[in-house]
Structures are given as structure tokens and as C-alpha cells.
Amino acid sequence: MPLTRFQLIKSILFLVCLVPMVNLVWGFYADRLGANPFEALTRQSGEWTLRFLLLTLLMTPLREILQQAWPLRLRRMFGLFTFFYALFHLITYLWLDQFFDWQEIATDILKRPFITAGMLAFTLLVPLAFTSTRAMMRRLGRRWKSLHRSIYLIGVLAVLHYLWLVKADLREPLIYAGLMISLLGYRVWKNWRKRAPLRTQAGIN
Ligand code: HEM
Question: Does 3 map to a domain?
Fold first, then answer.
């Protein structure tokens, strides 16, 4: 069966989403990640996780603003890439940062708030990744939507994770926080507008 134009674009986008990973792994083996390649792997994979998370959250407003269906058809792929980069990010931390010292890792999760937030965000991502299929969507029905609402909490935890780990220059994490606030704020605003007629009916302003 020949590929439709959308399938072709989606396949190309899939390959484009893999570029940062190939670039990171290749950079590591070619010794092009600077003086501390382990740290660079953790940091850059973390940043890519956040970028994919923002991209995933952008799809719903884009669909509503453009009145087109294609953003929703890309949302799951971007969401799964968020999980893919988050998993890689977590593995670099467990392996290259902590050398699988589980006691040290447990202490880190309990003692350092930015690690707590990151770990929580990752834990919440796991069920979303495993229930992302169409079959699971059908099986869970209304509960699927409720479950997938945790993506908003993940967004908040992800920016807190970044803000809390940075000690000096807050500019970059603040830019990401601003983007996250805009994407989540859009949803709050939409919800508020949707409920406005109900409030008027009930005499509340
Ligand atoms: C959705 C989940 C996560 C997101 C979006 C995320 C995002 C990020 C970002 C944006 C950075 C900063 C990159 C930079 O400095 O340029 C970072 C760094 C880091 N993250 Fe995460 N992260 C997540 C989960 C985790 C988890 C589960 C852990 C470990 C338990 C973790 C551990 C770290 C560490 C150790 C650093 C580097 C800190 C440093 O070099 O001082 N992250 N992460």
C-alpha cells in the first residue's frame, strides 16, 4: 500500500526526532562533547526531554488555533519521544552519574529536591507511555483522559526540576518555564471560557 503524504511527512519527522540522539551518541564516541562528556550527555538529554515535552503540549493548542487535524495525529509520536529521551536521561544519571549505587541514588532522590522532581516527572510519564496506544485509549475510555491529564503536572515538575538544579544563570530555565506557563495557561484560559456561560447561568461572575 503506498504511503499517504501525511505518513511520509510523519516518517521524515520520526527520523528528525532521532537526530539529537544520534548526535549525542556519536558526539560521545567521537569525543566531541567537551571536557565532561558524561555531564554533557545527562544535561543535553535532559534538555531534549523538556523540548519534546513542550512540543507534545503544543499540539492541542495548534490544532485548535489552526483548525487542522494533523497536530493531534503527531501528538502521540512526540509524547513517546519525550519518554524515550527521558529514559535515556535517567539511564545516564543512574549509570554515568551514580554508577548504579542504589543507596546513593535513594539518598539523592530524598535529599535533592531537583532529583525528587525529576524522578516524580519520570514516574508519571511511564503510565502515559504504556497507555498511549489506540487500543488502550479505547479500553480505558474516560479514564484515559483523566490519566493523561497528569502531563500537566509532569510539565510543572519538569520546569521545577530545571529551575532547582541551576545555581547561577536562571535565564534558560526561565525561558522554558515561560513557554510551559503559556502552554498550560492556554488550557486554563480555554477551560475558563468554556465554563463562562455556565457561570452566567448560575449568576456567578
Ligand atoms: C520528564 C523528566 C525530566 C526532564 C524534562 C528533565 C530535564 C532536565 C533538564 C532540562 C536538565 C538541565 C539541562 C541543562 O543543564 O542544560 C536536566 C538535568 C539533569 N537531570 Fe533531568 N529531567 C527529567 C528527569 C530526570 C530524572 C528522572 C533524573 C534522575 C533521577 C534527572 C537528573 C538530572 C541530572 C543529574 C541533571 C544534571 C544536573 C547537573 O548537571 O547539575 N532528570 N534535566
Answer: no
